[in-house]
């Protein structure tokens, strides 16, 4: 008797769903930033409804912006759920992809609950910080999922392309990047762009000088740039593939551009549009950092079984049988 599953999902379809999930996670960062920067954080004052007794907002700007962000979240939830189902029925089955796509499902649900708490606490800045940082964790998860979905990650299949001391240095770069993002988020929490619809100065702010937090953030950025330059010098002195060096150089270029935007927005008194560009830059920087790190280890493309052979194997028929 054949124990064939009711249906299977091809690796290419599963990969496309993972790519869509990654794109939507990036989009949710940008739309979430737009909510805060336009002062629409309480455009929908209730959750999951927009207002008490009304699922959708009235035709007014702040409500439409906030509701639009919620719609993106709904689409993201659907796509992530589809990616998880695809991982469950993927042929060949990959446990690592199932765990990663399941992590996205859990993360999105947790973010939805946290978003509701943020609304009910009238945009508490500390919870807003946690909400943003959790989105960055989701972004890392999505990048890793996309990367692994087309590569062979069986035990023993990896080959490290850079010396281990440089790998440890890269761990330091990634750790410092996380600290830099946390410091930048804290600076935002102390700044004037509170994101509340009835006036951006109304929502509670972090009781620390914006200038002090901005200077701390800038100092950490300079340290990060210096550490990354040291990593790139080490990569060029070591015997590593050019694609790894190129990925590290691109990572540095994005980092420097992001730093330039950050300094410009501070000295121009935080124009909302430039802050939104800075948020987009953070998203690109995190994606680039993870991709650069993953490029340091070689995994061959996943071998795709011939459909007929796979079908016979699933039916329990020996390969050589006629």
Characterize the structure shown.
The chain is an all-alpha fold and 322 residues long. The protein has one domain. The chain is built from 9 helices and 2 strands, in the order H-H-H-H-E-H-H-H-H-E-H. Strands 1-2 form a two-stranded antiparallel sheet. The longest helix is centred in the N-terminal third of the chain and has 28 residues, at 61-88. The model is unreliable at 197-201 and 308-322 (pLDDT under 50).
Condensed summary:
The protein has one domain.
Outline the fold blueprint:
Elements: H1 11-37, H2 61-88, H3 95-120, H4 125-148, E1 159-160, H5 164-190, H6 210-237, H7 242-267, H8 272-294, E2 297-298, H9 307-314
Antiparallel strand pairs: 1-2
What number of structural domains do the residues give?
1
Strand order of the largest sheet: 1-2
**Unreliable stretches:** 197-201, 308-322
| Residue share in helix | 55-70%
Which short descriptors sum up this protein?
322 residues; disordered C terminus; mainly alpha; two-stranded antiparallel sheet
